Amino acid sequence: MSCQLRLTAFSLMTSASQFPEIADAMQRAAQSHRAGNLDEAERIYRDVLARVSDQFAALHALSVITAQLSDFLRAHELLQRTLAINPNLADAQANQPTCKTRSRAMKTRWRSCRVLCTH
Fold first, then answer.
1. Domain count, the chain
2. Residue 107 belongs to a domain with what CATH number?
């Protein structure tokens, strides 16, 4: 099942301009992300977050990649962190219901699997 999530250039670049090296890294990550090189984009976003832990654009983009890799529980956690930093980010607000619904479904399946495995 595909996951349609929003990630615009505006949401990627709005908070990166304070630090030129972060802006450059975010641009490289966005290019990798658009090209479908999720591993490279994820690595760059994580590098950015290692330097600036509250960089909401990197958090949001990482949540999108995580959802694209079908880890909706983690994607939802990352979206929550993003929205705690910037509750007005429209893309993150738009993505939240998708990830929340999918993460609930995953939790339900996981519980069912655990029950089956213990019997």
1. 1
2. 1.25.40.10
| 90-115 b/e (C-beta count within 10 Å ≥ 16 → b) | ebbeebbebbeebbeeeeeeeeeeee
| Distance of alpha carbon 48 from alpha carbon 114, whole angstroms | 36
Closest by Cα among 20, 71, 72 to 48 = 20
Whether 76 is in a domain gets the answer: yes
Contacts of 85 (CB under 8 A, 6+ apart): 54, 56, 59
Q: What is the pTM of this model?
A: 0.67
Give per-residue pLDDT as tens, 20-35.
889 899 999 999 999 9
